[in-house]
Amino acid sequence: MKDAARLRKSELCEHLKTSILTLALGPGTDLDEASLSEEFALSRTPLREVFRQLAGEGYVELRENRGARVSGMSYTTLRDFFLAAPMIYGAILQLAAKNATPAQIDQLKQAQEVFKAALRSGSGADRAMANNQFHEVTGEMADNVYLLPSFRRLLIDHARIGMTFYRPQDATMVENLSEASAQHDAIITAIEAGDEAAASQLAIDHWNLSRDQIELFVMPDGLDLPLGSMARKTPA
Amino acid sequence: MKDAARLRKSELCEHLKTSILTLALGPGTDLDEASLSEEFALSRTPLREVFRQLAGEGYVELRENRGARVSGMSYTTLRDFFLAAPMIYGAILQLAAKNATPAQIDQLKQAQEVFKAALRSGSGADRAMANNQFHEVTGEMADNVYLLPSFRRLLIDHARIGMTFYRPQDATMVENLSEASAQHDAIITAIEAGDEAAASQLAIDHWNLSRDQIELFVMPDGLDLPLGSMARKTPA
DNA sequence: AAAATGCAAATTGTGTACAATAAAAAAATA
DNA sequence: TATTTTTTTATTGTACACAATTTGCATTTT
């Protein structure tokens, strides 16, 4: 038995992350140590360490003597999300434009290709994960230890919220998705040019598009939620 | 053997946190599992879980097969800090003013009393910890899961940076400390009144004061660091 | 003497057994 | 029958033993 366990450990970690991001494990789902331990041929000790790590990153919540459960989502967290997201996203993209390395820009372009492919022929989960990966890269570009924790936490719930509308139900959503893709391209251009102002503005635009989609889903019947009061996206 | 281990575990956790915040364990210090295990009469299994948790909160960094070490600090992280702090602090205090409960306001007043006591007769570590506690409470008031991770991460390094100037060396620093205390009082007032705008502005003021102290220490010889370009504090 | 190689000691990661706690079920009481 | 108490079962937490990896040191080699 060499370092097979190490591999299984990181596999488990990735598996849990994608399962949570794609809602295969919904918010509030209890994670069973015994069954996961068996499934991944890993003893409970390293398994529990993975739980602790995921808890630190915000994927799960740990309850004393009552195991791990997938982080919950409520209308309160949605309100918090609408408040924090534009601020953090704006800062991250601005810093990304400032600090991105050529290698990272390549990574970003690659992530965008994957995203486009997922739009053409992927599942909702594929799209959410590809989109998530794109934004993860921008986070690495920004490279600020103090902003990344919140940014990553936002990305988790953005993916989960997104999973509810990444399977387009009508023409509006299809159009929104291709617009999102176009914005990704614009973001790449801005970052490559080191244009901080443009990147920052694109973050707002991108956020507002996402916001519109979320509102569309969350209150299809026109239910009125108190969702803050940001400037809408700039005219094209 | 009942739940004594549970207690030892949280004790260890608190001990490590305060040791790191007060620089008793400096940035980059290696944490030895064996000796800590013996000191706290705790086996390595729960000890390692504590490490993972602290890593999630940003206190330590975990390196594969090479143990835990206290999170490092460099000029780069300091630059990141100057960039992220005003933004996050502003948002947190604004939200605190919006959402604080009476019970939390009591907590905040209590924390401020402890802080004042520490200013009168406490050590540098006492002051840093009391100040940290005060701001922790504001974080709980803000109660936004997406902002708290970054806020808490900032508080860690703010305490550590602060430890270098919480033992006043000259008259300027003594004056700054009493001004910081006065600002805390003003913050309490703004939060109690639910005055978001005032709280937000006080966050900037409080940050700028802290910023001046840090600059004073970091570059006592007038070394020029690229430290961003925020508006200075508002005139009293 | 400097660099490279191999060995020994220390440190970290995992597996498993057992203890403690919480949840569920069964029995007892009103 | 409803409620409380007790017993059973399942799950979580800790301790220790062993495996694997890294590190430091001594030796060899150029």
Helix-strand blueprint:
Two copies of one chain form a homodimer.
Chain A: H1 4-21, E1 30-31, H2 33-39, H3 44-57, E2 60-62, E3 68-70, H4 75-99, H5 102-121, H6 124-142, H7 148-162, H8 171-193, H9 196-218
The structure holds a DNA duplex (30 and 30 nucleotides).
Largest sheet of chain A: 3 strands, antiparallel
DSSP strand (E) fraction of chain A?
Answer: under 5%
State the CATH class of the largest domain in chain A. Mainly Alpha
Give the CATH architecture of the largest domain in chain A.
Up-down Bundle
Structural features, described:
Two copies of one chain form a homodimer. The first copy, chain A, is built from nine helices and three strands, in the order αβααββαααααα. Chain A is globular and about 50 Å long. Chain A is 69% helix and 3% strand. The longest helix of chain A has 25 residues, at 75-99. The first copy, chain A, has a three-stranded antiparallel β-sheet. Mean pLDDT of chain A is 89; it is low at 220-236. Chain A folds into two domains: 4-70, Arc Repressor Mutant, subunit A, CATH 1.10.10; 75-218, Four Helix Bundle (Hemerythrin (Met), subunit A). With 236 residues, chain A is mostly helical. Chain A has helices spanning 4-21, 33-39, 44-57, 75-99, 102-121, 124-142, 148-162, 171-193, 196-218; strands at 30-31, 60-62, 68-70. Chain A binds chain B through residues 45, 48-49, 52-53, 55-58, 77, 80-81, 83-85, 87-88, 91, 95, 143-154, 157, and chain B through 45, 48-49, 52-53, 55-58, 77, 80-81, 83-85, 87-88, 91, 95, 143-154, 157. Chain A binds a DNA duplex (30 and 30 nucleotides) through residues 1-3, 5-6, 9, 32-34, 42-46, 48-49, 64-67.
